[in-house]
Design brief:
Number of domains: 1
Distance between the termini: 35 Å
Strand content: 5-15%
Order of helices and strands: EHEHEEHHHHHHHHHHEEHHEE
Length: 375
């Protein structure tokens, strides 16, 4: 594949890191541009529908908005090289994709916005240079940064919950570091869809902003190396002597990865269940028309959901996008044979994630004309 794609993205963008990593790892030639380039507004936005990143423009001029859709575009065209064939690994990989893009927003926002003494100058530089070069550039930068600071709160980070958010993140970081001491990627010697989902928060926010990056470098060197590894086109495994270049044999999900999932399940499962209840209540009351936007600025917000975490109550935005991705996990599970389901059930039960199979919305979310819409 020699023709060059255009990726509209920003280095400090959480979701951009997911698509960028995929393009790098699969050696797909691309030129990265920020949304500050005039071509984004004039050529891309009319087809992309929303001014969000990442957005890809293929050499043929097709516009694909959203990281999941960008990755699916290439996976479908190339025999799904990042999708494990074994049912257990496949479900776990898809689950990490959801967790990475929606389940780690709380620590990602907390560690970016609540440590201004370390992060502010670094973050401001990147927000400034993502803006169009106009006289209002600095003013628009401050307005955008103020909106994003508020995002930390709407995802459930307050002065009362900061300690528990940090406690859970550090436990997760320790477990993930133990895993990456043994394996270069989540499921062995090559990245899966789950790796690309997980790199989203772990690169731009948690592995690159000064405060959390220092934390990762000092407390989780193997995680930091994985972050580096996910942004290199080669396998990048010199510290491993027998890494192999494929997924772990026999559809095994390593115990070290199960330990990571058990930590993540502490907030991901109760938050998902609470969000499903909240959104289903909103759907019953509002009855959006089929084809109405379900995700993004064009959609109506379903409100918040509350759940308990380590003795604290967290109230966070109920996000339909989480269920758009979770549908794929549930659909894949539904397609399995009864024998395959037994093995998957055992893994999900042991990891504390089994309840997610039934955490669904009363309306499906589909994708049409570059938008996620209610079916």
């Amino acid at each position: 594949m020699s023709k060059t794609h255009r990726l509209y993205a920003i280095t400090h963008s959480l979701y951009s890191g997911r698509a960028r990593s995929y393009l790098i790892k699969h050696q797909i030639p691309f030129q990265e541009l920020s949304t500050g380039h005039e071509s984004f507004k004039t050529e891309v936005l009319p087809k992309g529908k929303l001014a969000t990143i990442p957005t890809l423009v293929t050499p043929e001029g097709e516009v694909i908005r959203d990281g999941a859709a960008i990755i699916e575009h290439f996976e479908a065209a190339n025999g799904r090289p990042s999708r494990p064939t074994g049912p257990k690994q496949r479900i776990i990989s898809a689950l990490f994709d959801v967790i990475g893009t929606d389940g780690l927003l709380r620590p990602a926002m907390h560690y970016r916005w609540n440590f201004p003494e370390d992060n502010l100058a670094f973050v401001r530089y990147h927000f400034l240079h993502s803006q169009r070069d106009t006289p209002e550039r600095a003013e628009k930068t401050e307005a955008m940064m103020n909106r994003m600071r508020y995002a930390a709160m709407i995802f459930g980070v307050t002065e009362h919950t900061q300690a528990v958010v940090e406690s859970l993140y550090l436990d997760y970081l320790e477990a993930l570091n133990t895993h990456f001491e043994q394996y270069p990627y989540l499921l062995g010697g090559r990245p899966s869809i789950g790796d690309f989902g997980l790199i989203a928060p772990m690169y731009a926010h948690l592995g690159r902003d000064p405060h959390p990056a220092k934390l990762m470098q000092q407390r989780a060197v193997s995680v930091y190396r994985w972050v580096e590894r996910m942004n290199r086109c080669d396998q990048d495994v010199p510290e491993f002597f027998n890494a192999g270049n494929d997924f772990v044999e026999d559809d095994e999900v390593p115990e070290s990865l199960m330990a990571v999932l058990r930590v993540l399940a502490e907030d991901f499962v109760p938050e998902t269940l609470a969000a499903a209840d909240a959104i289903n209540g909103w759907l019953a009351e509002n009855k959006p028309e089929a084809g109405a936007p379900a995700v993004g600025r064009l959609a109506q917000a379903p409100g918040t959901a509350s759940f308990d975490l380590r003795g604290e109550t967290i109230e966070a935005l109920a996000q339909p996008h989480r269920f758009y991705l979770l549908q794929r996990v549930q659909d894949d599970y539904a397609s399995l044979s009864e024998t395959e389901k037994v093995g998957v059930d055992a893994v999900l039960t042991e990891s504390g994630m089994a309840a997610l199979l039934k955490a669904s919305l009363s309306r499906r979310i589909e994708r049409a004309d570059n938008l996620e819409v209610w079916a």
